[in-house]
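[step 3/7] inverse_fold.run input=structure_tokens len=717
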């Protein structure tokens, strides 16, 4: 990375080429260790992923017959930073060349950001064009041409480098498109083009890596013969194939190239005039690429070993446990049932798209309390300790842009058993994968057999994957979805399936994925909602599929259509109880509360201390809650940190529903019976599953859920 020392990484870690597999399929395990020697590997089954000593502790079992032996340790780097390259065959077969492009800096470091670099096949630098805080500089060997200018953030510049290849001179000119800045310089500039040379964009190649990354946007890189109006020898038009990692040269030499580490496309270029918000309608207005020094897509590590999923292995949550000289890492994965088989009546949907969206979320909350609890509990450290594997879609790039991509093809430090998100609140401070272990362990303790699938599987296989299950159950936070996953969930309940949505803030953000770029998700945080960052104007459409992004609600598909409730309020990671409503006493829902003698319900838990907390969902018939849905319980007593979500607010006092904003801060337990016979049960809270293990799973929340899952799954005695 530019201007930084090598980022810190754990002593031992790894990732998998896929997060799920069926018996008979193989998973590639990719590892890196900073410690020489041998690494031992074996498969474990992951049940409870909560290390809280006040609870039951982690429950992770060795799987018989799946000791994978040992292999030699290998240190493999994660190379951060996006850039691109193209071949140059025939490009310099002329006496004079004029290189022109448009540049929009977002962050210019003292050490410089490389705009263009010509590099020989041996890695030697032939010439570079670099932005510094006080100049744009062209360098060839000892020759330096500097145009004195102060590159301003988010201002577009025209850059022109006129090369006299025979005379060994060059002229460099820079002018801002806003008309406020211009500079020019010229002088000796000699280099010898060589066969096999490559032209790089936005970084300078250095061995198998790249350095001096440019943070900002490039557009319209053009090489012309003789003069600024001469014949085009190469024109890399970034408006072509914007959904790919390729760059296209429309010139006569067809010098097509590749992008590295997935820079952002479908962004406003210098030609954007505000008349078109859909980049597919006016591609030339979006003919820029935004490069960042911390982009990462695929670490590209060598495979350390391959795991063959044995026939007969039960569907469930598993992990590859790596151990070496006191160091350990457990890399989770999911085993599906065989294709077309149903080994259980109940199916658990693991929210892997959400896990990827939050992958390596650096929160900046690594204080002394957090460090002490990590040490005391013996849990994994995360991206605030080890930033070397990139960030999440909840982080900003150093140049101020939000991360719209996240990939699973790197160590997912936040997707580890025991990983703690918070240390300052009551309970265990778990979210996402480790938090969902509360539910996975609950299934085991209730002796309810499950099959396990993931979001990615559901996206790929659709309704066929879940049709035939009596009950489908989510975890605590199924937030990110594609059109395909929502369609499958909608059709499942419409065709008679029984659905348990056990989280909060679910079915919220629309994402894009691509078969051409496997393992990555894209999110554009457009048009409101609770957002970590806001999409730039005109950039609400996904690069990967060309569809409008943002909230599913803004796409006409509010979460209430899927799970009967939708996001309504959010506060600190703390929980409150529910109060039962009069509808809970109706005879047709009495079975839900059989054996439940709590009211209020859920005034306890390992997630924030209560079953209704952090992110809260409520019924709204205007947004798609099925007709006849009963609200069985409603949360109360939320602290001052809680607020209603922005999409409900019209002004400082008015909301879309007409209720006061504070009244929209509530989680609702609801039950719906659909015309086709399907049923929906929802808890409306992200912290609900954290209450299940309380008192060794003997509590009202646990009993209520058992009643529902057994009824939905046809498992009643």
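[step 3/7] decode complete -> sequence:
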């Amino acid at each position: 990375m530019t201007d930084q020392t090598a980022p810190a990484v754990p002593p031992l870690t790894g990732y998998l080429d896929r997060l799920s597999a069926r018996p008979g399929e193989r998973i590639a395990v990719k590892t890196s260790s900073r410690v020489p020697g041998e690494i031992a590997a074996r498969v474990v089954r992951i049940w409870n992923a909560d290390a809280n000593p006040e609870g039951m502790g982690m429950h992770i079992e060795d799987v018989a017959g799946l000791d994978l032996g040992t292999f030699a340790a290998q240190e493999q780097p994660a190379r951060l930073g996006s850039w691109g390259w193209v071949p140059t065959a025939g490009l310099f077969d002329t006496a004079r060349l004029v290189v022109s492009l448009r540049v929009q800096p977002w962050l210019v470091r003292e050490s410089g950001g490389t705009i263009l670099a010509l590099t020989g096949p041996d890695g030697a630098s032939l010439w570079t064009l670099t932005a510094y805080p006080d100049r744009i500089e062209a360098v060839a060997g000892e020759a330096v041409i500097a145009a004195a200018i102060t590159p301003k953030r988010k201002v577009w510049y025209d850059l022109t480098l006129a090369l006299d290849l025979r005379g060994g001179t060059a002229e460099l000119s820079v002018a801002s498109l806003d008309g406020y800045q211009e500079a020019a310089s010229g002088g000796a500039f000699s280099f010898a083009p060589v066969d096999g040379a490559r032209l790089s964009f936005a970084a300078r190649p250095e061995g198998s890596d790249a350095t001096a990354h440019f943070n900002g946007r490039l557009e319209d890189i053009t090489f012309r013969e003789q003069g600024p109006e001469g014949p085009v020898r190469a024109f890399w038009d970034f408006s072509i194939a914007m959904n790919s990692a390729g760059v296209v040269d429309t010139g006569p030499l067809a010098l097509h190239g590749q992008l590295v580490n997935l820079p952002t496309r479908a962004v406003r270029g210098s030609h954007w005039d505000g008349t078109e918000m859909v980049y597919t309608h006016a591609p030339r207005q979006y003919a820029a690429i935004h490069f960042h020094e911390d982009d990462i897509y695929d670490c590209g590590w060598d495979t350390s070993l391959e795991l063959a999923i044995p026939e007969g292995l039960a569907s469930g949550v598993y992990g590859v446990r790596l151990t070496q000289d006191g160091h350990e890492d457990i890399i989770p994965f999911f085993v599906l049932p065989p294709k077309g088989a149903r080994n259980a009546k109940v199916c658990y949907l693991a929210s892997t798209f959400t896990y990827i969206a939050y992958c390596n979320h650096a929160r900046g909350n690594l204080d002394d309390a957090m460090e002490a609890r990590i040490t005391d509990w013996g849990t994994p450290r995360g991206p605030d300790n080890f930033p070397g594997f990139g960030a999440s879609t909840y982080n900003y790039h150093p140049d101020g842009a939000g991360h719209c991509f996240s990939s699973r093809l790197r160590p997912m430090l936040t997707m580890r058993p025991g990983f703690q998100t918070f240390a300052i609140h009551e309970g265990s401070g778990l979210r996402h994968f480790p938090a969902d272990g509360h539910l996975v362990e609950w299934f085991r303790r209730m002796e309810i057999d499950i099959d396990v699938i993931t979001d990615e599987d559901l996206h790929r296989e659709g309704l066929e994957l879940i049709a035939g299950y009596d009950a489908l159950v989510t975890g605590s936070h199924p937030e990110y979805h594609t059109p395909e996953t929502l369609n499958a969930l909608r059709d499942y309940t419409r065709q008679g399936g029984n659905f348990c949505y056990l989280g909060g803030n679910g079915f919220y953000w629309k994402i894009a994925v691509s078969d051409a770029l496997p393992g990555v998700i894209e999110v554009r945080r457009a048009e409101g909602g609770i957002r970590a960052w806001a999409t730039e104007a005109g950039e609400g459409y996904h690069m990967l599929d060309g569809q409008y992004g943002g909230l599913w609600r803004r796409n006409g598909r509010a979460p209430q259509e899927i799970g009967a409730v939708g996001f309504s309020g959010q506060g600190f990671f703390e929980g409150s109880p529910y109060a039962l409503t009069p509808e809970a006493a109706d005879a047709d829902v009495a079975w839900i509360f059989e054996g439940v003698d709590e009211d209020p319900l859920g005034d306890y838990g390992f997630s924030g201390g209560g079953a209704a907390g952090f992110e809260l969902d409520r019924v709204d018939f205007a947004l798609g809650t099925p007709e006849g849905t009963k609200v069985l319980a409603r949360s109360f007593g939320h602290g001052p940190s809680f607020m209603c979500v922005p999409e409900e607010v019209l002004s400082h006092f008015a909301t879309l529903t007409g209720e006061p904003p504070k009244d929209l801060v509530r989680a609702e337990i609801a039950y719906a019976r659909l015309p086709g016979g399907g049923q929906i049960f929802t808890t409306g809270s992200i912290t609900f599953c954290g209450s299940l293990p309380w008192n060794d799973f003997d509590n009202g929340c646990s009993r209520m859920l058992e009643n529902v899952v057994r009824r939905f799954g046809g498992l009643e005695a």
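[step 4/7] annotate
The longest strand covers residues 60-72.
The chain has nine helices and 41 strands.
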